[in-house]
Design brief:
The termini are far apart. The chain is 13% helix and 26% strand. The chain is globular and about 80 Å long. The strands form eight sheets. An eight-stranded mixed β-sheet has the order 11-15-16-19-21-23-22-20, with no helix packed on it. Strands 14-13-12-26-27-28-29 form a seven-stranded mixed β-sheet, covered by helices on one side. A three-stranded antiparallel β-sheet has the order 5-7-6. It contains six helices and 29 strands. With 527 residues, it is α+β, with helices and mostly antiparallel strands. The protein has two domains: 151 residues, no CATH class; 339 residues, Metallo-dependent phosphatases (Purple Acid Phosphatase, chain A, domain 2). GO terms for molecular function: phosphoprotein phosphatase activity. Pfam families: Metallophos (PF00149). This is Calcineurin-like phosphoesterase domain-containing protein.
């Protein structure tokens, strides 16, 4: 049975002292995260929480009162009903007004959960939840993101999507993926310090996250992808409320009913008040259209998993496999600053075992397309002899100094493309020169190494004194031909940028002539 907000006479809002500063205690049924949120976001000497008490429905009697409505405001709510209802509104600290009614046995008339989100740009994409427009009246500093109540009425209903249903290619055999890297969203609107106009002229500082949401939304509306992959640093470092920020990242996807998968970046859980990766993954997994998984417990990291893409209709034939791995974060090092954890051996073992088992199950289809996604680039991205086929290196690759040879495992298992983020102004795809042992036509070439490019206006998109436009990468799989094509979507550009065939007939395409890392293709119109 669901838990209802039961504010019986003995359970009411009250005041309490914390560290000598007057605050308020609110007893309601809500999610546990609410208990841990300082409504001042740790920015003031005073602190305040929304404390909760849950009462299960089967424990209620007809004599109990349950909350049927909550409002926030300085003035008494205009009930629009008789005087009895007006008199039933009870005022609480922070401008909260509560309407209590006798329990009738109908949970749909009751408030069953309360939460707190922060920021004038906060959103709540969860089904049945309603975010209040008026913030709590706390007297916080104007620069502190405002606290806003969000409530759920009625019992929990199943997710509007059907997560157990597999991903499927369209009838024409195609499947489109949009990779969104480094959104770097914050609690509140944030600030963008390096935006430029269509001609490359610097723009003044402005709110970051609304620009990111609009940019991503525009790309989704143009591309209409079958899947979105968020490749890390969805959240900026030192986030004050991870939940509010994470909701802003996935809301554009949920609004458009687009399935999505996630890997973590080095900044996502960085900071005193940031939620752990496991806690964030739990939030992702509970959201509509999420295909995110925490992965095996005995494998290092959070978010090592795979997804299969199946043939149309009810076919059980997998035509493509997507692998997702946690690339961890920054580590202390005497070798390099900054330095990062490598992909661990337990992850490589898991990937190799899983790939071989899946290949055995499908009896090795020649045109099966496999891609992998991480956040921090592996050391091979920094090779000086990479053969670039689109985009540019505009900053040095930042990755682990220790090479755990994940690239070799990818090559052995026939992965066609490895996608990453992290270095915001790098946006190339490149191949390593084949080794002598790979010259035999029967041997697989190593995977394409592709950067997504930075999409978020809250993260940097400049290097030195040069600013660049935000961008995302698109992959289109053609399972009929065994092909993979890629291009980029860039601010202000109406056309695809750097369109490139990566794979044909299930084999990596080795284009000629080559471009060096300082070059690009003629289609690169936005510098």
């Amino acid at each position: 049975m669901s838990a209802l907000i039961a504010l019986v006479p003995a359970v009411i809002f009250g005041a309490f002292e914390l560290l000598g500063v007057s605050s308020f205690l609110t007893k309601m049924a809500t999610s546990s995260c609410c208990k841990e949120k300082d409504l001042y976001l740790h920015t003031a000497q005073q602190t305040a929480w929304l404390q909760i008490e849950q009462t299960r429905e089967e424990h209620l009697t007809a004599d109990d009162l349950v909350v049927t409505e909550i409002r926030v405001g300085e003035l008494h709510p205009d009930a629009g009903a008789g005087s009895d209802e007006v008199n039933s509104w009870e005022r609480r600290p922070g401008g909260i007004w509560v309407l209590r009614s006798p329990y009738t046995g109908d949970r749909h008339q009751a408030v069953t959960a309360v939460d707190v989100l922060f920021g004038v740009d906060a959103v709540d994409p969860r089904p049945q939840w309603g975010l209040m427009g008026t913030p709590l009246q706390l007297g916080a500093h104007p620069e502190v993101p405002v606290a806003r109540l969000t409530i759920r009425q009625g019992g929990v209903t199943p997710r509007p999507d059907v997560p157990q249903m597999p991903l499927r290619v369209k009838e024409d055999g195609k499947f489109k993926i949009v990779q969104i890297a480094d959104t770097h969203m914050v609690t509140g609107v944030g600030v963008c310090k390096d935006a430029i106009d269509a001609h490359g002229n610097p723009l003044p500082e402005r709110g970051a996250d609304p620009l990111t949401v609009n940019f991503i939304g525009g790309i989704l509306d143009v591309e209409k992808p079958d899947l979105v992959i968020l490749t890390g640093d969805q959240l900026h470092h030192d986030i004050l409320d991870s939940q509010s920020t994470l909701f802003k990242v996935v809301a554009p996807l949920i609004e458009r009913s687009i399935p999505y998968a996630v890997v973590f970046g080095n900044h996502d859980d960085e900071g005193t008040y940031a939620l752990s990766r496991m806690a964030q993954m739990s939030l992702y997994q509970d959201m509509p259209f999420s295909l995110c998984q925490s992965g095996p417990e005995l494998v290092d990291g959070v978010g090592n998993y795979y997804l299969q893409i199946f043939a149309p209709g009810s076919s059980q034939l997998p035509l493509s496999t997507l692998y997702f791995l946690d690339s961890h974060g920054q580590i202390p090092s005497k070798i390099r600053d900054p330095d990062y954890d490598p992909i661990k051996q337990s992850q490589i073992d898991w990937f190799t075992f899983t790939s071989q088992a899946l290949r055995q199950d499908r009896h090795e289809k020649d045109n099966h397309l496999s891609l992998a996604f991480i956040h921090i680039p592996i050391p091979e991205y920094a090779d000086s002899d990479l053969i670039v086929r689109g985009g540019k290196r505009r900053e040095p690759t930042e990755g682990p100094s220790f090479n755990s040879h994940f690239y070799d495992a990818l090559t052995q298992e026939g992965i066609a493309v490895l996608g990453c983020g992290h270095d915001h102004v790098n946006d190339f795809c490149a191949l390593r020169p084949p080794k002598d042992s790979q010259q035999d036509g029967d041997k697989l070439h190593g995977p394409w190494l592709c950067y997504g490019g930075g999409s978020g206006f809250g993260g940097y998109c400049s290097y030195g004194d040069k600013r660049y436009h935000r961008r995302t990468r698109v992959f289109e799989l053609d399972t009929r031909t065994g092909g993979i094509k890629t291009w980029k979507r860039v601010e202000y550009a109406k056309e695809r940028i750097d369109e490139l065939d990566l794979v044909d007939s299930g084999k990596v395409v080795d284009h000629t002539p080559a471009y060096n890392l300082d070059g690009g293709t003629s289609a690169q119109v936005v510098l």
